[in-house]
Amino acid sequence: MANLRQTPLTCSGHTRPVVNLAFSDITECGYFLISACKDGKPMLRQGDTGDWIGTFEGHKGAVWGVALNKDATKAASGAADFNAMVWDAVSGQGVQSFQHKHIVKSVDFSSDSALFTTGSNEKLIRIFDLNKPEASPVVLNGHTSGIRHVFFFRNDTRLVSCADDKTLRVWDRASNQEVKKVEFNSVPNSLEVSRDGTILTVAHGDCVTFFDSDRLDKIREVKVPTRVNSASLNPDRTIFVCGGEDLKMYKFDFLTGNEIESFKGHFGPVHCTRFSPDGELYASGSEDGTLRLWQTTVGKTYGLWKCVDGVPLPAQDSLSNTSIQEVVAN
Questions:
Q1: How many CB atoms lie within 10 A of CB 226?
Q2: Domains along the chain?
Q3: What is the reported pLDDT for 318?
Q4: Positions of the WD repeats (predicted)?
Q5: CB atoms within 10 A of CB 175
Q6: Nearest 5°: CA angle at 316, between 312 and 319?
Q7: Residues in a beta bridge with 48
Q8: pTM for this entry
Q9: What distances in angstroms separate CA 110 from CA 21, 47, 68, 150, 308, one per listed residue?
Q10: CB neighbours of 178 closer than 8 A, spacing ≥ 6?
Q11: Residue 144 three-state SS
């Protein structure tokens, strides 16, 4: 199957660069994918096919960060209108709105969906109790520049964040204090917590670095042939993917750090990438305004990829330049 051509599924609909995306866990209805875009309209899709489900409308500026809770019943978004919003992901209606004093770059739910955190250009992390939305949030202060990403992890006992101050910081929920910090030579563009919570994946400069999430010891660091904007580790920890300024998607062996393959599909720099919860595909978002879904194992029947005896059917090729919705409609 190594000789088969990778043919991504292209998800159209956004009108400006796609800058962030997130998957739900696997639910009884499959899994779901949400995307953030500078057009101000985050979109929800079926995760394994990219089929459009709905668009959350209400922001008045570019949306920088998105999140889904585990069972995909709630969605969240943070935007340049200084607002973070929580949505009913089933009805598409806005449920709660949290005003900030600057651009909200990152949002995340706790594992039980009771808490909601934001990271903003105010250099602050806020933690809101969604059961008491009128209550003042817990505020974590320590970053010296705008925050790019923040996530709950370690059973919600801690948070991890990275910012334009070239640091990654871990925060203890009990004390609301910073307990660990890692400094980089360049701004960490992306941060991912592995699905089992044990590994942190950070893209910075032309490197992807993996840390043990407990001690923040460096597991390994891999150099990439371009400035890398985002990286994601497969749930089984065998490979990782990344993308950046040269428009390519790269696949690496996680254990050896060797490049497995690279390929172009986007027509602009890659801003974000994430593996699906089952590890069968990964999604990427780009300056070109599209999301693309890529097979982890090329030549396997999965989602809209149909293969017979390991050979992709001819119809697969048409997906590379056509939206999934158009293909399904036809």
A1: 17
A2: 20-329 (2.130.10.10)
A3: 31
A4: 56-97, 97-138, 140-181, 263-304
A5: 8
A6: 155
A7: none
A8: 0.91
A9: 17, 21, 10, 11, 42
A10: 140, 142, 169, 170, 171, 172
A11: coil
Integer Cα distance of 150 and 23 in angstroms: 16
233 token code pair: 């580790």
Residue 316 sits at φ, ψ, to 5 deg, of: -60, -40
Distances (CA, A) of 268 to 66, 275, 301: 21, 20, 28
Q: What do you get for the CA distance between the two ends of the chain, in Å?
A: 28
Q: Say which DSSP state 323 is in.
A: B
Tokens 């008491």 belong to: 132
3-state helix, strand, coil in the chain (%, to 5): 5, 50, 45
DSSP alpha helix (H) spans, the chain: 324-329
pLDDT in tens, 227-274: 999 999 999 999 999 999 999 999 999 999 999 999 999 999 999 999
Query: What is the rounded distance in angstroms from the CA atom of residue 74 to the CA atom of residue 96?
Result: 11
Q: Which residues of the chain have pLDDT under 70?
A: 1-3, 308-330
Q: Which residues pair with 18 in a beta bridge?
A: 37
